[in-house]
């Protein structure tokens, strides 16, 4: 793992205008593992100009050729899978096996899906006496978070490149080394200069400059709802297209007919995955009053098993934030049945896997996104009550429903105000659309719906 001391712009690594650097800290031992440039507005401008210059030729490149470049990118990422996993583990603190299977493995599958879509998507169709063309929207400013560093990059860059757009990426400052690896892979895969550009830097400086730049046609952002509002306001002033994947407070609804033990155990695993740093995590478990205490006992037992299995959260700031929410839950009267605010280790940004019982819908821990390994268990009286609680937040990103009869679960899921619902533990599908209702965002990622975000439509009448 070697950090570049430059930015990847117009097909080459070049020095940033600023001499400022960002130190990358390993959350496990709190040691600096790399330093990258803190690019600024001038660097963003250079990158956007490179992307605009490369746009006409890349947009005109036949889809089959774009597909071939994406297939080459997939192969490079697959060949460097172990290096990617080790890098994610170093800067995010994720256990190595999880980094291999999820942080490295899932993005490879996503790139593969867009290599196929670039070759097969109908970019042109006949509608009566019209020919309808789908064309690239233009230059994409991609701003990505740290929690799934490579997946979040790929979920934006791969469909944008498949569509014929050019890209300027500003990755999270906590995990820029993974972004540098991706830039290396793009270069090795043979993409033309300027088609993909990387500017590492701070959100309020480089990120804001990218969102505001008049040469950017679409801003794709994943992160907090608060920052998403700011980006939406900036883009709205310029009548610029946005794609926003924001916060979540997803409900895991266990209906009385479900296999309770399986639903609880899978639900706890979902929340503890990636140390709880998953926007779609099922952080609210809803259980019928008759089964409530049994579910609480099962969840507490399951959570205790994760004490030595999950990694830290990403930073000291995030650790303090999560511990603050745990203290808030206790202060508001929730019953702590596992974990707590005390750090389980003397070194590193670790948070104890935590479970709260007797949580009511209005409590802070049931309404706000914590982004750590904290589960709230809520009681409901009947299905209408469960639906009221499930839909009772400003978010609507994901969720789950469990029932003995699949049709019963599907009927409930259809009434949930959320973008994606897993039925009885349904598997993640990298080709299914992902995105939210309400304040969880605008637009969709992954699959054909993700590709559509980077296309605009023109009709020719004959």
From TrEMBL:
UniProt similarity note: Belongs to the aldehyde dehydrogenase family.
Name of this chain's protein: Aldehyde dehydrogenase family protein
Pfam families per record: Aldedh
Organism this protein belongs to: Streptomyces hyaluromycini
Active-site residue list: 245
Span of the signal peptide: none
PROSITE patterns (UniProt xref): ALDEHYDE_DEHYDR_GLU
Aldehyde dehydrogenase domain boundaries: 13-459
């Amino acid at each position: 793992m070697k950090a570049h001391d430059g930015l990847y712009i117009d097909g080459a690594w070049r020095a940033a205008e600023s001499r400022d650097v960002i130190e990358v800290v390993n959350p496990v031992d709190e040691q600096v593992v790399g330093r990258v440039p803190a690019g600024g507005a001038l660097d963003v401008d250079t990158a956007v100009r490179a992307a605009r210059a490369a746009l006409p030729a890349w947009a005109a490149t036949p889809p089959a050729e774009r597909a071939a470049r994406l297939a080459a990118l997939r192969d490079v990422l697959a060949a460097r899978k172990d290096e990617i996993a080790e890098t994610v583990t170093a800067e995010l603190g994720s256990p190595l096996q999880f980094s291999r299977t999820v942080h490295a493995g899932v993005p490879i599958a996503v790139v593969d899906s867009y290599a196929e879509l670039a070759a097969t998507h109908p970019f042109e169709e006949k509608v009566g006496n019209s020919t309808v063309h789908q064309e690239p929207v233009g230059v994409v400013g991609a701003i990505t978070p740290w929690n799934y560093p490579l997946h979040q990059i790929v979920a934006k860059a791969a469909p944008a490149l498949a569509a014929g757009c050019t890209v300027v990426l500003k990755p999270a400052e906590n995990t820029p080394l993974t972004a540098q690896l991706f830039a290396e892979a793009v270069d090795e895969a043979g993409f033309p200069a300027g088609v993909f550009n990387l500017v590492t830097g701070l959100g309020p400086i480089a990120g804001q400059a990218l969102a505001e730049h008049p040469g950017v046609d679409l801003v794709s952002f994943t992160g907090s709802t608060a920052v998403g509002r700011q980006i939406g306001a900036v883009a709205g002033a310029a009548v610029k297209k946005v794609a926003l994947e924001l916060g979540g407070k997803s409900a895991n609804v266990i209906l009385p007919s479900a296999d309770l033990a399986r639903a609880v155990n899978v639900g706890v695993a979902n929340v503890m995955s990636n140390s709880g740093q998953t926007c779609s995590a099922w952080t609210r478990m809803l259980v019928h009053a008759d089964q409530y205490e049994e579910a609480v006992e099962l969840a507490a037992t399951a959570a205790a098993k994760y004490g030595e299995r999950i990694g830290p959260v990403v930073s000291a700031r995030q650790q303090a934030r999560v511990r603050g929410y745990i203290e808030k839950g206790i202060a508001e009267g929730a019953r702590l049945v596992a974990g707590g605010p005390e750090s389980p280790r003397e070194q590193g940004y670790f948070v104890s896997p935590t479970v709260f019982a007797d949580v009511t819908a209005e409590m802070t821990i049931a309404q706000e996104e914590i982004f750590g390994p904290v589960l709230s268990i809520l009681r409901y009286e009947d299905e209408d009550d469960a639906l009221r609680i499930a839909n009772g937040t400003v978010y609507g990103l994901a969720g789950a429903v469990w029932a003995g009869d699949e049709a019963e679960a599907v009927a409930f899921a259809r009434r949930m105000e959320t973008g994606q619902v897993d039925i009885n533990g349904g598997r993640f599908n990298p080709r299914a659309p992902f995105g939210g209702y309400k304040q969880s965002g605008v637009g969709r990622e992954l699959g054909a719906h993700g590709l559509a975000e980077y296309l605009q439509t023109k009709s020719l009448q004959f």
